[in-house]
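Project standup — Tuesday

K.O.: blocked on the structure for the chain from last sprint. Re-posting the sequence here as requested.
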Amino acid sequence: MSDYILFYAPGTCARVPMTCLEEAGVSFESRVVSFIAKEQRDVDYLKLNPAGKVPVLVEDGRALSENVAILGYLGRRFPDAGILPPAETEFERCQHVSDLAFCASVLHPIVTRIRIPERFCSLDGARSDVWKLAAEMMIPHFDFIDARLGQSPWWYGEKWAAMDSYINWVWFRVTGAGFPQERYPNLATHAERIAARPSVQRVLARETAGQEDLVSRGLNYGFQPVASVPLD
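H.V.: unblocked you, prediction finished:
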């Protein structure tokens, strides 16, 4: 029996804690959740996470939701895995939490508006407007991230950390939804380094299996990207 269960949906930010579990080399079961079937709203699932979202990490029957909490827990639970960098002071530890919160509370909401803008508008033709406004909001953040990644191969220097996988997930989601990549060479190179990690390759294999399961049940989500919209 697996020590951990991670509830996820393919392509979602659950990829980040799944990568961390793989980096830690621990046994875990990954259980796919179908949004089309509204499995995230099932009574049993809502007992694990009343918000009805992924990811959820279950350990010994106890459930933990929200990436900042999950990644912080895994970082302290498996200190040798490099999930979080060493922190000599409480202030440094909180700086690491702040970085993860930047991804979760600043970048992630923008990602959602770029990826699925139709959830934020009701007027015909407004989908492209939402996408454009969100993409313009992302530009200064990506400028900052790209500049930082130009100074070292990973967010914290010479070693991978969970923050790198979180940034890469943001990059993956928005570039897959038409966000222009050309002005961010360091983010693109960072994505290549991420893709080469064995842990990430194992995660993608898990996601592929989950996607195949959804397709076999007729529960595949049909994503329709917004047509290219010029940015200022």
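K.O.: great, moving the ticket to review. The helical segments are 15-24, 43-48, 67-77, 90-115, 126-149, 162-175, 185-195, 198-216. Residues 165 and 200 are 9 Å apart (CA to CA).
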